[in-house]
């Protein structure tokens, strides 16, 4: 994620005080004997200090280098002429004039800071003369520019005495006047920063005031400038686990890091709103923000206004307020409240009546009284009940009182220790509050992703509203029209993996995960239908899934699939005991203490300070545990930042190169670009001679351009078409509607809707079709089944279609269809009669039944479980039900034969589409048109559906990684990882199946239930060739684009890259450690023959060499040596790169069509097994005689060997072949002792691309693009 150019803690420091005109008037009034106590004074800017504070007089580097953390772009904005000022002295009685406290003639300030309103904001109550000194007071400011970028300020008001000179005419009534009164007026110092470090900046000002109050007035300006220059030397910590600490005596100042790149640092007390409001009022405030009301905070304490308002900005994360945000309005700024747009502003409580009377449509939030009121035109809707009840329950568990936390502790004699303990308590509480508020946002918007079409960037708002509870719809109607929600949608459609997405995934119930694997995920299951007629306490789980505690999940849904689990023991459903999904960081925050500040206004001292800082960071980098790559990345970030500011641009590039390899999540793209742009000619020539730096610069530019293109996507609302649609447009419209995504199914639907006419769909026909589909869906959701019927159905079963009332052989009633059975809902006395399970059907035919003088069409259904035939007089519905039942029958038969439940879901979709087609066409051709959708029934009639017995016995299950994609994609790689990968710091982790699809997509399955955990992780845009689980914390993926991508299994994000290869990465292998103290090493190879040895802990290259071969395809490690497979040979290579032995292609396979495609080494038997493309055989070699194979094993009906792995004492071989002119994929299981094929498994309808072993108990196979599925096979 990009960040701005380097900026230190300080953006500017501004001194504000009484203007010279006000002091002159005050002096005149005193001389005239007038009362001057409490007189108002005009405030103005007296000083502005902004970096850079020092510069080299003759800087050879030119203007590109500013020796301070600063934004170099500046503007002149404060030009005034000097005016005479009355003589004013400090407490010591020394006289002052414009040379003491003075404003500059020409003040240069950063371009984002406007000084015009700053005096009013520093003194929002006005500046007055006080008869006695007042206590120092602090308040906080937020400045927002037209682009929404925020700058933050902390203001301290401190009082200094005014002592008037008695020179001149100072007599009254002929007598010299008495001693003039001792009066005080306030001065304000405002420290402005790009970062919301409210507590830290307040601490800085507190420390500075200790020095300022004791200094002479002559030194005032210099002291402020030195203070500002010191803050400008402080670097901002990168996101993550490293905080920066520096000393401003007498205090130690802590800059906490951001949690991640998507949110600012939390440096305020987030529990303040909970001390001011009850949970109900907090929810009202959040509601007013989410619905973009005109919100006004009121308080008698200016400091609380900003802090409380900022807390609510954190509470709505990741949603971001898009409108004016001015938490403090002075009395002169109240006209801002007349703005016609939504806003969030704050003012003093004594303006309450004036604001309420003059302005309409306001939500008024009184912080002092803890109340939220709104005008009649700004009524707040109720937030979703389930989410709010969960929020209230969580809040009750918060410990908000620090005194209760420390009542058992003794009195501390160390102020630093006391502050550190208080900070630690606050940090923990802040994390808990962020967890609770994030959970609230997740529970409110959890269902959004069910109504998104990612390919076309469409959100179906109407269907989303219909899916919500009736009482909640008023809230969602308002939210859906807001800018804040629109930006949120853009991030969801971009599949942003932020805190919201991680919590939403982690808190899904197991039942919900499994429902998302079917195309009918929005249909209610029997559990949900049952809850519909129960109390709200039981309905909570429908929306929140695993989010609420102590809600037991029904295990019946997961039980059939969990029997196929790779776990050795049954799993406990996580829905029963889940804590909030947003967890505290597993690693403690480390501290980096800056060196003592130098004299900050001398160039050579500042340069030495930077050198000391770089050396200190280098020491930390040298001593940090190499396995702690996250902390190492933070040190690289800081050292690169400081090196750039110090003018050491080449060193900065080197650190950013290490950072790019170590943690891309915090890579400062914009800063990197600034470094490159500032390079001098001599430095550019050095970069040009270093290919690694040139490659880094090129990749950063490319990724930056891709990020801009990705971020520019808009959000479309689904709308029904208004013009005729050709097939391409029709496919897009159907996908946008969310009805179905599969292009093959949509093409058949297009044929059905255009039967007997031109190949284009009328918009009215599409409207009728869409309406009928949605009405059928709504009817199924609203079905009111008696309790006696619900007891007969499975808990995860869904009702999809109900007929009209008909006469049957079992009485009058309605026929209901689920995805598993047909049953009759009898009328009169409601009851349940099972008609048939689809897998038990034997015959379905249309007949006729006599009725008076007529014969009425009827449907006869015969099953294997009962002798009598069920007959229903379905009349005009008979043909449609005949089609639907036969399609469901064929789909169930396919699912049972192929162990693939997706066939049932596809058949169900086809049946429901038939129903909608017949309903919208309303003509004689409607049934014929609907028959175009009978895909599985046609397959059943055209050819046998039987699966060979051996295949059926070995095949356990099939899953579809392309379910959420419009077309099947090739499964390029599969990797099973046991539960330990990614489990560090947690109670455990389920095993996972990682699946690489075309175009750099990685899909993740929970291998305990085969439910999809992660729809898609984008890893580049090229084909992925190999995967490797490394060190339990990393997943390495080699890509066609020459990059090794590293995925963090915790965050499911790709945050590291290895870019040393120059060509397509084709193989990865992990070396066995001789002992636990030896560094872990991994090897990678690329197609041109390069092999690189990596130290896993540091991701540094330890060795590399080049092999002479034709197209290096893969590598493995056996017996401490590398085995490398190229197109023309298999090589055994020593670790130093020297060749030990080489196995060339056998004589009978030499030639352009054939090359090695895979190999397996039996080291204990001294055997090598090889397979070749365009050859249906395996060759077995003795390692002692690599000239010719001693055994050739023929693979029947195999045209080409694609992949092979060793499992126990078997070789599993994935092949490509043809049968009946069609491509198919077969797996051959070969006995290694007898050298013969034990099993031939008919695996897929396209070639087998990849094989992976799961603990030698299961083998997973992935198919090419025509099939795109994963099969799970039992190993015997």
From TrEMBL:
<dbReference type="Pfam" id="PF03455">
    <property type="entry name" value="dDENN"/>
</dbReference>
<dbReference type="GO" id="GO:0031410">
    <property type="term" value="C:cytoplasmic vesicle"/>
</dbReference>
<dbReference type="InterPro" id="IPR001680">
    <property type="entry name" value="WD40_rpt"/>
</dbReference>
<dbReference type="InterPro" id="IPR037516">
    <property type="entry name" value="Tripartite_DENN"/>
</dbReference>
<feature type="compositionally biased region" description="Polar residues">
    <location>
        <begin position="88"/>
        <end position="102"/>
    </location>
</feature>
<dbReference type="GO" id="GO:0005085">
    <property type="term" value="F:guanyl-nucleotide exchange factor activity"/>
</dbReference>
<dbReference type="Pfam" id="PF03456">
    <property type="entry name" value="uDENN"/>
</dbReference>
<dbReference type="InterPro" id="IPR057977">
    <property type="entry name" value="TPR_DENND3"/>
</dbReference>
<dbReference type="InterPro" id="IPR011047">
    <property type="entry name" value="Quinoprotein_ADH-like_sf"/>
</dbReference>
<dbReference type="InterPro" id="IPR005113">
    <property type="entry name" value="uDENN_dom"/>
</dbReference>
<protein>
    <recommendedName>
        <fullName>UDENN domain-containing protein</fullName>
    </recommendedName>
</protein>
<dbReference type="InterPro" id="IPR043153">
    <property type="entry name" value="DENN_C"/>
</dbReference>
<dbReference type="InterPro" id="IPR051696">
    <property type="entry name" value="DENN_Domain_GEFs"/>
</dbReference>
<dbReference type="InterPro" id="IPR005112">
    <property type="entry name" value="dDENN_dom"/>
</dbReference>
<dbReference type="InterPro" id="IPR015943">
    <property type="entry name" value="WD40/YVTN_repeat-like_dom_sf"/>
</dbReference>
<dbReference type="InterPro" id="IPR001194">
    <property type="entry name" value="cDENN_dom"/>
</dbReference>
<feature type="domain" description="UDENN">
    <location>
        <begin position="85"/>
        <end position="499"/>
    </location>
</feature>
<dbReference type="Pfam" id="PF02141">
    <property type="entry name" value="DENN"/>
</dbReference>
<keyword id="KW-0344">Guanine-nucleotide releasing factor</keyword>
<feature type="region of interest" description="Disordered">
    <location>
        <begin position="78"/>
        <end position="103"/>
    </location>
</feature>
<dbReference type="GO" id="GO:0032483">
    <property type="term" value="P:regulation of Rab protein signal transduction"/>
</dbReference>
<dbReference type="Pfam" id="PF25570">
    <property type="entry name" value="TPR_DENND3"/>
</dbReference>
<keyword id="KW-0853">WD repeat</keyword>
<feature type="repeat" description="WD">
    <location>
        <begin position="1241"/>
        <end position="1276"/>
    </location>
</feature>
């Amino acid at each position: 994620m990009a960040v701005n150019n380097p900026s230190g803690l300080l953006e500017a420091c501004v001194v504000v005080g009484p203007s010279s005109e006000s002091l002159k008037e005050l002096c005149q009034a005193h001389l005239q004997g007038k009362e001057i106590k409490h007189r108002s004074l005009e405030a103005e800017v007296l000083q502005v200090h902004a970096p850079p504070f020092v510069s080299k007089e003759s800087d050879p580097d030119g203007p590109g280098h500013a020796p301070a953390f600063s934004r170099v772009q500046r503007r002149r904005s404060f030009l005034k002429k000097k005016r005479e000022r009355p003589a004013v002295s400090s407490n010591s009685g020394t006289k002052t004039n414009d040379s003491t406290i003075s404003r500059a003639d020409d003040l240069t300030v950063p371009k984002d800071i406007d000084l015009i309103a700053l005096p009013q904001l520093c003194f929002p109550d006005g500046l007055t003369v006080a008869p006695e000194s007042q206590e120092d007071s602090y308040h906080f400011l937020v400045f927002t520019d037209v682009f929404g970028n925020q700058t933050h300020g902390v203001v301290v008001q401190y009082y200094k005495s005014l002592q008037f000179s008695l020179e001149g005419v100072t007599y009254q009534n002929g007598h010299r006047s008495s001693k003039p009164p001792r009066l005080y007026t306030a001065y304000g110092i405002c420290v402005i920063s790009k970062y919301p470090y409210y507590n830290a900046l307040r601490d800085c000002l507190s420390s500075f005031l200790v020095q300022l109050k004791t200094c002479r007035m002559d030194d005032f300006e210099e002291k402020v400038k030195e203070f500002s220059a010191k803050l400008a030397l402080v670097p901002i910590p990168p996101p993550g686990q490293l905080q920066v600490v520096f000393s401003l005596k007498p205090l130690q100042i802590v800059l906490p890091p951001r949690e991640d790149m998507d949110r600012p640092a939390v440096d305020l007390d987030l529990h303040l709103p909970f001390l001011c409001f009850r949970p109900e009022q907090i929810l009202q405030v959040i509601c007013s923000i989410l619905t973009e009301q005109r919100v006004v905070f009121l308080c008698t304490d200016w400091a609380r206004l900003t802090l409380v308002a900022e807390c609510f900005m954190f509470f709505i994360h990741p949603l971001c307020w898009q409108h004016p945000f001015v938490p403090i309005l002075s009395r002169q700024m109240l006209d801002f409240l007349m703005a016609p747009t939504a806003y969030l502003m704050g003012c003093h409580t004594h303006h309450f009546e004036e604001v309420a009377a003059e302005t309409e449509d306001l939500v008024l939030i009184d912080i002092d009284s803890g109340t939220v009121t709104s005008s009649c035109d700004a009524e707040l809707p109720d937030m979703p009940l389930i989410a709010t009840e969960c929020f209230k329950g969580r809040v009750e568990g918060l410990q908000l009182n620090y005194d209760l936390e420390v009542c058992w502790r003794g009195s501390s004699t160390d102020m630093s220790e006391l502050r550190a303990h208080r900070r630690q308590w606050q940090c923990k509480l802040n994390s808990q509050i962020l967890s609770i508020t994030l959970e609230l946002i997740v529970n409110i918007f959890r269902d959004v992703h069910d109504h998104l079409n990612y390919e076309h960037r469409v959100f179906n708002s109407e269907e989303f509203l219909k899916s919500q509870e009736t009482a909640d719809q008023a809230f969602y109607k308002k939210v859906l029209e807001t800018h804040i929600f629109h930006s949120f949608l853009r991030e969801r459609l971009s599949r942003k993996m932020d805190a919201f997405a991680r919590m939403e995934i982690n808190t899904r119930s197991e039942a919900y995960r499994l429902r998302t694997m079917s195309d009918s995920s929005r249909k209610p299951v029997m559990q949900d239908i049952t809850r519909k007629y129960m109390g709200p306490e039981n309905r909570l789980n429908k929306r929140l899934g695993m989010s609420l505690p102590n809600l037991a999940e029904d295990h019946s849904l997961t039980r059939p699939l969990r029997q196929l689990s790779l776990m050795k023991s049954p799993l406990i459903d996580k829905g029963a005991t889940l804590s909030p999904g947003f967890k505290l960081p597993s690693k403690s925050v480390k501290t980096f203490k800056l060196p003592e500040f130098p004299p900050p206004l001398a160039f050579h001292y500042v340069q030495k300070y930077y050198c000391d800082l770089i050396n200190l960071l280098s020491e930390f980098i040298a001593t940090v545990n190499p396995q702690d790559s996250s902390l190492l990345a933070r040190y690289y970030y800081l050292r690169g930042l400081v090196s750039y500011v110090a003018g050491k641009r080449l060193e900065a590039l080197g650190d950013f190169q290490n950072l790019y390899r170590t943690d891309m999540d915090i890579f400062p793209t914009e800063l990197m670009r600034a470094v490159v742009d500032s390079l001098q000619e001599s430095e550019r020539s050095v970069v040009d001679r270093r290919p690694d730096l040139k490659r880094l610069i090129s990749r950063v530019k490319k990724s930056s351009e891709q990020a801009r293109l990705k971020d520019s996507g808009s959000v479309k609302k689904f709308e029904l078409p208004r013009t005729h649609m050709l097939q391409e447009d029709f496919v897009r419209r159907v996908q946008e509607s969310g009805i179905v995504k599969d292009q093959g199914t949509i093409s058949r639907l297009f044929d059905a809707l255009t039967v007997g006419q031109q190949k284009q769909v009328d918009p009215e026909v599409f409207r009728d079709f869409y309406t009928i589909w949605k009405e059928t869906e709504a009817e199924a959701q609203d079905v009111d089944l008696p309790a006696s019927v619900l007891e007969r159905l499975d808990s995860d079963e869904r009702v999809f279609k109900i007929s009209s009332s008909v006469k049957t052989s079992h009485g009058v009633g309605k026929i209901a269809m689920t995805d598993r059975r047909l049953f009759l809902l009898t009328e009169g006395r409601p009851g349940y009669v099972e008609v048939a399970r689809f897998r038990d059907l034997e015959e379905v035919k249309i007949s006729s039944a006599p009725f008076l003088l007529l014969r009425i069409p009827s449907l006869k259904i015969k099953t294997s479980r009962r002798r009598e035939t069920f007959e229903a007089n379905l009349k005009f519905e008979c043909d449609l039900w005949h089609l639907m039942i036969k399609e469901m029958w064929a789909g169930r038969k396919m699912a049972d034969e192929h162990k693939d439940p997706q066939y049932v879901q596809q058949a169900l979709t086809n049946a429901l589409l038939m129903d909608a087609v017949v309903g919208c066409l309303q003509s004689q051709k409607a049934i014929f048109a609907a028959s175009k959708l009978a895909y599985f029934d046609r397959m059943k009639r055209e050819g046998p559906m039987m699966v060979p017995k051996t295949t059926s016995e070995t095949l356990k299950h099939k899953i579809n990684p392309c379910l959420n994609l419009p077309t099947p994609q090739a499964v390029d790689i599969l990797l099973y990882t046991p539960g330990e990968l990614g489990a560090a710091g947690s109670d455990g982790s389920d095993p996972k199946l990682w699946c690489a699809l075309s175009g750099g997509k990685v899909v993740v399955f929970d291998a305990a239930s085969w439910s999809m955990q992660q729809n898609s992780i984008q890893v580049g845009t090229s084909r992925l060739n190999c995967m490797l689980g490394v060190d339990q914390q990393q997943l390495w993926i080699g890509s066609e684009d020459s990059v090794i991508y590293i995925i963090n299994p915790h965050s499911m994000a790709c945050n590291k890259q290895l870019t040393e290869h120059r060509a397509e990465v084709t193989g990865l292998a992990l070396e066995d450690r001789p002992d636990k103290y030896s560094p872990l090493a991994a090897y990678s190879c690329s197609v041109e023959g390069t092999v690189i040895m990596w130290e896993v802990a540091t991701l540094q290259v330890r060795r590399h060499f080049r092999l002479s071969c034709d197209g290096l395809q893969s590598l493995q490690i056996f017996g401490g040596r590398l085995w490398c497979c190229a197109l023309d040979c298999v090589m055994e290579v020593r670790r130093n790169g020297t060749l030990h032995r080489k196995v060339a292609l056998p004589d009978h396979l030499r030639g352009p069509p054939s090359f090695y495609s895979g190999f397996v080494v039996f080291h204990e038997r001294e055997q090598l097994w090889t397979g070749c493309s365009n050859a249906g055989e395996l060759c077995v070699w003795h390692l002692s005689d690599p000239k010719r194979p001693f055994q050739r094993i023929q693979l029947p009906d195999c045209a080409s060997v694609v992949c092979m792995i060793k499992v126990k004492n078997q070789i599993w071989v994935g092949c490509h072949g043809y049968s009946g002119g069609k491509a198919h994929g077969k797996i051959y299981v070969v006995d290694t002792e007898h050298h013969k094929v034990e099993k031939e498994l008919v695996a897929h309808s396209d070639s087998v691309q990849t094989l992976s072993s799961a603990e030698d108990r299961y083998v997973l196979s992935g198919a090419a693009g025509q099939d795109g599925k994963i099969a799970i096979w039992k190993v015997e």
